[in-house]
Specification:
Elements (H helix, E strand, L loop, with lengths): L1 H18 L9 H9 L10 H5 L4 E3 L7 E4 L9 E10 L2 E7 L7 E9 L8 E4 L12 E8 L31
Antiparallel strand pairs: 1-7, 2-3, 2-7, 3-4, 4-5, 5-6, 6-7
Length: about 180
């Protein structure tokens, strides 16, 4: 009887594993942002802004495909990153991100509003699922990291020629005149 119970439990657990959709993957914000934006940065979200320096263009204007880098706070100890899906207005965008309203889950096209006094996207409010709105929390950000404007890799400098290059054994050709 005990062997039958073990077999039954094994069959049920295998069935449950197969019934779990692949979309139920648990996502952290940084690996998700990297996968959807193409920005090849690693580590905690609060390090992305510094890592992007010299590798990707950065700024304070939203652009579709750019990643908004949130600073670390007491409530968000490792910051947050989210990709801009669409620009609604100069002070409102839609974000696609993971691990915000529901642990490990992806949210697509959620509202984010620039509430900074200067209109520079340094402070935002973001839609939060459990409340169904923006709420009253304001989050500090560093700005946007642009995936499609990464600086070209630097080529090694070429020293200018000091004198004409002569190739040994090459015949000299005179121009016909």
């Amino acid at each position: 009887m005990k062997a039958l119970a073990v077999r039954f439990a094994l069959v049920v657990s295998c069935g449950l594993m197969m019934a779990t959709p692949a979309a139920a993957q648990f996502w952290q914000c940084a690996p998700f942002a990297r996968s959807v934006s193409g920005i090849a940065l690693h580590g905690n979200a609060d390090t992305w802004w510094g890592q992007a320096e010299g590798r990707y263009a950065r700024g304070d204007a939203p652009q579709p495909g750019a990643v908004l880098a949130f600073k670390a706070t007491a409530r968000m100890r490792v910051g947050h990153v989210a990709m801009v899906s669409r620009i609604v207005s100069p002070r409102e965008v839609l974000l696609t991100h993971a691990n915000w309203s529901r642990r490990g889950r992806v949210e697509t096209d959620v509202r984010a509003v620039d509430v900074s006094p200067e209109g520079d996207w340094s402070q935002v409010r973001v839609w939060y699922g459990p409340t169904g709105g923006l709420g009253t929390s304001t989050y500090p950000t560093s700005g946007f990291i642009y995936a499609d404007q990464a600086p070209a890799p630097m080529e090694p400098p070429v020293a200018p020629l000091q004198s004409p290059l002569l190739i040994a054994g090459a015949p000299t050709v005179q121009a016909a005149g």
